[in-house]
């Protein structure tokens, strides 16, 4: 197992106006592992995820304190190029959100905004991204049809392909399977395991079985605090904290 | 008792709705009945193919509406050239760039613009814009096509801005997030995702603005100089369909060919604005279904 640290979070606090959504979070995310974040609704796990690619910048009244280092670079220091940060840290959202464009244009969107215009180069990227997200076989004959005609599970894999097309190092996934049926969910999970060979994946999930099935490490959030963060087996078999055990055994949440 | 009351209330609203339809059909029937004699006496082909409109000539009155239709279209087109870029850009600015403070001032201000009476705008056309055009382009006077276009552009601007802003604001947040998440900046997101997603709403707003511009009478009547000849360029004086009706209908002898011909002009105008509104309605409808 590769144990190099990819993301290092120190004393991270996040506020939405007067509300403190994250309290003093410290966490080290390892390279090419799947890190799952679990916890009840409103516990701050999605907020935390959005701190890693500065998506919280888009929310009015959001304020962040602390350090988030990706590859030893603090992404909140002045002068950080948010565009290249988001290129490096891709994101997949809870609701599949393909653009109302063709399948091809969805994938090519990212490369295009980053300046790739050459058609054959774009073709290559589209094919490679769709293959990596296990969607190629299903859509290769209809790349110019609307992405909105795909099923929910296909749309989510398309969104993953779209994120892969800009060649990120890290993939953030915010409950990527919560809007999908069990079959589509298991496909996404298999896909994540494959992707973890090349990418560092951080996934927020409501589904504890999912976290147990796919992740290497799991963090348990509660009321904006990171209660416990450890190897997934440890969290699910012998957690150090009573609160973690209560949540995992279904006593609340 | 209660059920009876309920029934009466329903009837009342139903009647109100039907009344509007009756009025619309009534106007349409009236226009057709009064313009039919014109087509019979002048001939449909003559009416549409000739650019010469001279109903009071001694040697032989001419009833060709080509120059008027062309004038209406050219003034409207010019107005759209002004109002569409300005309106859509303002809409994009209000919904995507401006802070809440600016937005809360700007949007109502633009909507107030719609409330300025057209005669006041026409007055501005005569005393402000006309002399300005004459000076800038070194003309004898500034009552011409471009003056009318500017005024109509101002009049169509609130419709286009306000409705485009609604369409742009309605673009789902998830599309914007996806775009930002891929590293796009604001401008790229606006141009490649937000505006294409709002396009049908924007087009519908343009069509509605256009409908307003084609049908507008007072401002163009005051600002375009009203020469009934075919305009040769945008600095020519011209007379639109609406202006022709407004100028002549008050003085025309009842039940003459001239009288009917004016109704025929009105009918063509009605059909044109009706089509524009219909198209915008279809586009808007389609847009709502997609979202």
Task: Walk me through what this model shows.
The complex is a heterodimer of chains A (253) and B (291). Chain A has helices at residues 45-51, 82-88, 103-113, 119-132, 136-139, 152-164, 182-195, 208-214, 232-237, 242-248, and strands spanning 5-16, 19-30, 34-38, 62-70, 73-74, 89-92, 170-174, 200-204, 217-222, 225-231. Chain A has 253 residues and is of the alpha/beta class. In chain A, strands 6-7-8-3-9-10 form a 6-stranded mixed sheet, sandwiched between helices. Chain A is globular. With 291 residues, chain B is mostly helical. Chain B folds into 2 domains: 2-54; 67-290, MetI-like (MetI-like fold, Orthogonal Bundle). Helix content of chain B is 77%, strand content 1%. Chain B has 12 helices and 2 strands, in the order ααββαααααααααα. In chain B, strands 1-2 form a two-stranded antiparallel ribbon. In chain B, α3 (66-97) crosses α9, α6 runs antiparallel to α9 and α11 (241-248) packs antiparallel against α12. Chain B starts with a helix and ends with a helix. Chain A binds chain B through residues 53, 55, 58, 82-87, 90-91, 93, 95, 97-101, 109-110, 112-114, 159, 162-163, 166, and chain B through 172, 174-175, 177-185, 188, 192-193, 196-197, 290.
How are the SSEs placed, and which strands pair?
The complex is a heterodimer of chains A (about 250) and B (about 290).
Chain A: E1 5-16, E2 19-30, E3 34-38, H1 45-51, E4 62-70, E5 73-74, H2 82-88, E6 89-92, H3 103-113, H4 119-132, H5 136-139, H6 152-164, E7 170-174, H7 182-195, E8 200-204, H8 208-214, E9 217-222, E10 225-231, H9 232-237, H10 242-248
Parallel strand pairs in A: 3-8, 3-9, 6-7, 7-8
Antiparallel strand pairs in A: 1-2, 1-4, 4-5, 9-10
Helix pairs in contact in A: 3-4, 3-6, 4-6, 6-7
Chain B: H1 2-42, H2 44-49, E1 53-54, E2 62-63, H3 66-97, H4 100-113, H5 118-136, H6 145-169, H7 173-181, H8 186-197, H9 199-215, H10 218-223, H11 241-248, H12 257-290
Antiparallel strand pairs in B: 1-2
Helix pairs in contact in B: 1-12, 3-6, 3-9, 4-6, 5-6, 6-9, 7-8, 9-12, 11-12
């Amino acid at each position: 197992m590769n144990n190099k640290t990819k993301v290092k979070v120190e004393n991270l606090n996040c506020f939405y106006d007067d509300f403190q959504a994250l309290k003093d979070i410290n966490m080290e995310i390892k390279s090419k592992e799947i890190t799952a974040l679990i916890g009840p609704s409103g516990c701050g796990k999605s907020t935390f995820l959005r701190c890693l690619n500065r998506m919280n910048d888009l929310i009015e009244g959001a304020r962040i304190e602390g350090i988030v280092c990706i590859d030893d670079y603090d992404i909140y220091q002045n002068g950080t190029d948010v565009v290249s940060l988001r290129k490096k840290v891709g994101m997949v959202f809870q609701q599949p959100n393909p653009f109302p464009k063709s399948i091809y244009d969805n994938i090519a969107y990212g490369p295009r905004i980053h300046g790739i215009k050459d058609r054959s180069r774009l073709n290559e990227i589209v094919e490679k991204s769709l293959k990596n997200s296990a969607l190629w076989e299903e859509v290769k004959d209809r790349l110019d049809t609307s992405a909105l005609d795909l099923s929910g599970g296909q749309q989510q894999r398309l969104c993953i392909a779209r994120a892969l097309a800009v060649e990120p190092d890290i993939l953030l996934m915010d409950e990527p399977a919560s809007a999908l049926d069990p079959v589509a969910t298991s496909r996404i999970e298999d896909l994540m395991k494959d992707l973890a060979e090349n990418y560092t994946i951080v996934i927020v999930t409501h589904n504890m079985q999912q976290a147990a099935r796919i992740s290497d490490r799991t963090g348990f959030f509660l009321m904006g605090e990171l209660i416990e963060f450890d190897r997934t087996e440890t969290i699910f078999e012998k957690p150090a904290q009573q609160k973690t055990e209560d949540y995992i055994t279904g006593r609340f949440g | 008792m209660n059920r009876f009351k309920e029934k009466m209330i329903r009837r009342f609203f139903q009647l109100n709705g039907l009344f509007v339809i009756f009025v619309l059909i009534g106007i349409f029937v009236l226009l057709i009945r009064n313009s039919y004699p014109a087509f019979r006496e002048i001939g449909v082909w003559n009416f549409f193919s000739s650019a010469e409109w001279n109903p009071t000539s001694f040697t032989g009155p001419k009833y060709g509406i080509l120059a008027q239709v062309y004038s209406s279209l050219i003034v409207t087109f010019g107005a759209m050239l002004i109002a569409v870029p300005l309106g859509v850009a303002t809409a994009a600015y209000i919904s995507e760039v401006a802070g809440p403070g600016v937005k809360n001032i700007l949007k109502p201000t633009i909507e107030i613009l719609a409330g300025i009476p057209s005669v006041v705008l026409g007055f501005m056309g005569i005393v402000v814009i006309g002399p300005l055009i004459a000076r800038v382009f070194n003309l004898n006077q500034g009552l011409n096509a471009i003056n009318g276009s500017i005024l109509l552009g101002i009049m169509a601007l609130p419709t286009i801005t306000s409705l485009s802003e609604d369409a742009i604001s309605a673009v789902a947040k998830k599309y914007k997030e996806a775009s930002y998440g891929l590293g796009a900046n604001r401008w790229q997101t606006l141009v490649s995702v937000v505006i294409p997603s709002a396009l049908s709403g924007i087009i519908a707003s343009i069509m509605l603005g256009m409908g307003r511009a084609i049908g507008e009478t007072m401002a163009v009547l005051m600002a375009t100089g009203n020469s009934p000849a075919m305009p040769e360029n945008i600095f020519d004086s011209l007379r639109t369909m609406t202006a022709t009706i407004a100028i002549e209908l008050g003085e025309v002898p009842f039940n003459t060919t001239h009288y009917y011909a004016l109704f025929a002009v009105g009918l063509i105008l009605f059909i044109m604005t009706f089509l524009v509104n219909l198209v915008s309605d279809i586009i808007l409808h389609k847009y709502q279904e997609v979202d």
